[in-house]
Specification:
By secondary structure, the protein is an alpha/beta fold. The protein is built from twelve helices and eight strands.
Length: 298
């Protein structure tokens, strides 16, 4: 099953609501535009994004004399896809080693995402190393070890409660010594209102920059698609402590609304790099903006 079909299945709840609106379109129909804007807001796209997208659609309908529902739907697909074009959707991992720093609150699927990324890059022939810098949560390192074994890659870990920054330092040293191409660092599911934890994240980022000044560094924030606007709030808080380069949107598997990707793009200028559409190792998919918008409105 490809990206479009997976997303279409995962966004069923929103898709049914959005898709039905276009049957009501008939020229300059104010009620249609009002309902469309409301539907985008309900889908977690955010008021600013919804207003801007519907405003652009109005202009497009008038300027291009669009009439049929298929033409209007296609126009909105283009508008929404363009709204997501806020940066590169590819990870920049050209140096040896390159670093992926994973951040996000507890329960968003961060450890699972790390395991899937490790499996992906290992399957591509890259030498991958994991660093278990989430030393606060009980059994976090053990869970990551299971994923390392599945992916056939190495792992650096310390005891529970140890200094996370020291794990990062040792992980970098091990990556250099072992010739690893990709170092993926897990971090604690730090609550965004805990200043000390955010400070620790900043400390890790400084160590990476100091020890690997020339390395490509991707800082990916994992966001649970079912949390809606809370995900946007979390992303803004994390952005203050880490130079976030992209989003991984997880749990797009039936209950998610999905519009949060537009709110994050609009308000933070951050691209979605991957989406998680299930628990399987192959259920982490590279993000495709046009296919996402088409699935949302299909």
């Amino acid at each position: 099953m490809g990206f479009f079909d997976k997303i279409k299945q995962g966004l069923e709840k929103t898709r049914r609501q959005m898709g039905g609106l276009f049957a009501e379109f008939s020229g300059e129909n104010e009620e249609f535009y009002d309902e469309l804007e409301e539907a985008l807001i309900i889908a977690d796209a955010g008021a600013a994004t919804a207003e801007k997208a519907v405003g652009r659609l109005r202009e497009k309908v008038r300027s291009e004399s669009l009439r049929g529902q298929d033409e209007v739907r296609a126009a909105l697909v283009d508008i929404l896809a363009e709204a997501l074009e806020v940066g590169s959707f590819e990870l920049r991992l050209e140096t040896k080693p390159s670093v992926i720093l994973m951040v996000g609150v507890n329960g968003v699927g961060k450890t699972t995402t790390i395991g899937k990324l490790a499996a992906k890059y290992s399957a591509e022939g890259k030498k991958v190393l994991l660093a278990a810098a989430d030393t606060f949560r009980a059994a976090a390192a053990e869970q990551l070890t299971v994923w390392a074994e599945r992916a056939g890659c190495g792992i650096v870990k310390h005891g529970e409660g140890s200094d996370p920054a020291s794990v990062v330092f040792d992980g970098i040293a091990a990556a250099k010594a072992r010739g690893a191409e990709v170092l993926i660092i897990d971090t604690a599911g730090r609550l965004h209102n805990k200043a000390n934890l955010m400070n620790e994240l900043s400390k890790m980022r400084r160590i990476i920059s100091r020890e690997l000044p020339e390395a490509d560094i991707e800082t990916l924030m994992v966001v649970d698609a079912t949390t809606g606007q809370n995900g946007l709030i979390q992303a803004k808080q994390f952005a203050e402590a880490a130079d976030i380069t992209g989003i991984v949107l997880t749990k797009l598997d039936g209950t998610a609304k999905g519009g949060i990707v537009f709110a994050i793009a609009e308000e933070m200028g951050l691209p979605v790099k991957f989406v998680g559409v299930g628990e399987g190792v192959d259920d982490l998919m590279a993000f495709e903006p046009k296919s996402f918008a088409e699935a949302l409105l299909s």
